[in-house]
Write a structure and sequence with these properties.
By secondary structure, this protein is of the alpha+beta class. The chain folds into 2 domains: 3-285, Vaccinia Virus protein VP39 (Rossmann fold), CATH 3.40.50.150; 296-507, no CATH class. Helices cover 33% and strands 23% of the residues. Strands 3-2-1-4-5-7-6-8-9 form a 9-stranded mixed beta sheet, sandwiched between helices. Helix 3 runs parallel beside helix 5 and helix 13 packs across helix 14. The longest helix is centred in the N-terminal third of the chain and has 17 residues, at 84-100. The two termini are 55 Å apart. The relative contact order is 0.09.
Length: 517
């Protein structure tokens, strides 16, 4: 398979110890030669090779002869995959393994097919005792329009918004399982916190099928991909509100708690003990959440920062000299520049980063609008000449989609009207809270978020930089490599603040906040 095909089909190869761990948690060890199992995205057979070994060894312990074992293998072990070369390799590997035990001539049910083709899998509805695997990691938006529509028409968990194909495989797995069946997948842990995973979270919670979660947090398990991984064990016969939580890395897996699923926030599953979950809930319920006393905004997004943002440009009189990474030098008008802060590297409120952004917008009635091309050419001829020189690069942004505003406009309109003024700035990801007050109104910003607040910014920043916030974000936020955490709006907006000094003294706003709360 070519690398591009691997990427297209979301292929990530699974270490064997993960397969063993999943099978152990499914209790796929003894008395399994009569049980049916399937990997609906089997690839070249990493999961099924271990399954076949366990299956044959279990049958041998029972004294089953090879002819019966052959028949059982044909009837009870299945694999689907969309890639023909992978399925052929899988069959070859399974033949070799079976041959080691003297079992030959097996007609394997390893089938080249699109596992999400409902008309095909209908015949396997409620057929299996176990569903296992490492489903493909690929955004459904990256599929062809026809296939994407077919999947969204046929499967409930991916019908709305941007989603990942692996989420659909959870629905497929439950569709294939019999009434007492168990599922074991390793997937990205993103479904715990994203909007795309909301339907899956609700599905799992409503049906009371969550048996075990093994969270690997920021620890990397795969050699060929940066993925934050989670093992999910579902059991149709579980029917309880609690699940076993483990956390681990490549060396160890440690038991944490029997977690009450009712303690999990509907839009953000934080995997930790019940005691910590209660503390987090108390933080969110106290006072008022941050998003009710302040506004949280993302910064400027150009989708081509190297062509808009320049550090230490040479400015003389009304001209600025800028240099691209390829060595080209241009002169543009100073008047089209705005001072900008890179929030992700900001260290303190007195820092002068000396960065400027080419800002082809004008302010009308409190809002920014793109300067029309003819006006840009007339008022800023040097800047316009620069834009023309890089036009092809700008037009190739966003996978070549035409910019709906103008070809020289920023890639996104977010932050245009909300990034200026006094604010508290934070990086998008960080090891711990680092909220910095920035009082220079004329500065915009990028690579982070800002908190806008009408009152005492320094007092608010004190709470945002508190140990409480560090504790809160360490548990509710997404994990990144080296234990970095996300400080995105979705993770900080519910942080509760109960200091009355931070609530606007205007009576009507107080009443509005109390009503909302």
């Amino acid at each position: 398979m070519q690398i591009s095909e691997k990427k297209l089909n979301g292929v990530v190869y699974t270490p064997k110890w993960i397969v063993e761990l999943i099978l152990d948690n499914l209790d796929y060890k003894n008395n399994i030669y009569e049980r049916r199992i399937i990997d609906p995205a089997c690839g070249d057979g990493v999961f099924l090779s271990i399954v076949v070994k366990r299956f044959i060894e279990d049958a041998k312990r029972k004294g089953i002869d090879n002819n019966v074992i052959k028949t059982k293998l044909e009837n009870n072990i299945f694999g689907f995959d969309i890639d023909k070369i992978a399925t052929e390799k899988c069959i070859s590997i399974l033949n070799n393994i079976a041959g080691e035990y003297g079992v030959k001539g097996v007609k394997w049910n390893i089938i080249k097919t699109d596992s999400l083709d409902k008309s095909f899998v209908d015949k396997f509805f409620n057929s299996f005792d176990f569903v296992i695997g490492n489903p493909p990691y690929i955004r459904i938006q990256h599929l062809g329009a026809k296939r994407r529509k077919k999947i969204q028409d046929e499967w409930n968990l991916c019908q709305k918004g941007s989603t990942d194909m692996f989420i659909t495989f959870f629905e497929l797995g439950c569709y294939l399982l019999n009434k007492n069946g168990k599922l074991g997948y390793i997937t990205p842990n993103t479904y715990l916190k994203t909007k795309a995973g909301e339907n899956l979270r609700n599905f799992i919670k409503y049906n009371k099928i969550l048996k075990t979660l093994i969270d690997f947090g920021h620890n990397q398990l795969f050699d060929n991909a940066t993925t934050y991984s989670l093992i999910t064990i579902l059991d149709k016969n579980h029917r309880e509100n609690t699940f076993s939580l483990f956390k681990g890395d490549r060396q160890n897996v440690n038991y944490i708690d029997e977690v009450d699923i009712e303690n999990l926030n509907n839009d953000n599953w934080t995997l930790t003990s019940n005691d910590i979950l209660k503390k987090l809930n108390n933080i969110e319920k106290r006072g008022f959440p941050l998003n009710q006393i302040a506004k949280i905004h993302v910064g400027i997004t150009t989708l081509a920062d190297d062509y808009y943002i320049f550090k230490d440009p040479v400015i003389k009189n009304n001209l600025a000299e800028i240099q691209l990474r390829d060595g080209r030098v241009f002169q543009i008008e100073k008047g089209i520049l705005k001072a900008i802060i890179k929030a992700s590297v900001l260290k303190d409120s007195n820092e002068d980063q000396n960065r400027f952004i080419i800002f082809p917008y004008k302010k009308i009635g409190g809002k920014h609008f793109i300067i029309k091309e003819k006006d840009l050419k007339k008022k800023y001829p040097l800047a316009y000449k620069y834009f023309v020189a890089i036009r092809k690069t700008l037009e190739n942004r966003d996978k070549g989609k035409p910019n709906p505003v103008a070809w020289y406009a920023f890639g996104r309109s977010q932050g245009l009207d909300t990034s200026f003024g006094k604010k508290i700035l934070t990086s998008s990801i960080n090891l711990k809270p680092n909220f910095i007050v920035w009082e220079k109104k004329e500065y915009t910003f990028y690579a982070g978020y800002c908190v806008k607040y009408d009152g005492d910014l320094n007092l608010l920043a004190k709470y945002l930089n508190s140990e409480d916030m560090e504790f809160y974000i360490n548990h509710v936020s997404r994990d990144y490599q080296n234990n970095y955490k996300s400080f995105a709006k979705s993770f900080i907006e519910k942080f509760g603040i109960d200091d009355l000094r931070l609530i606007d003294g205007r009576k009507e706003k107080q009443q509005s906040l109390i009503f909302q709360h």
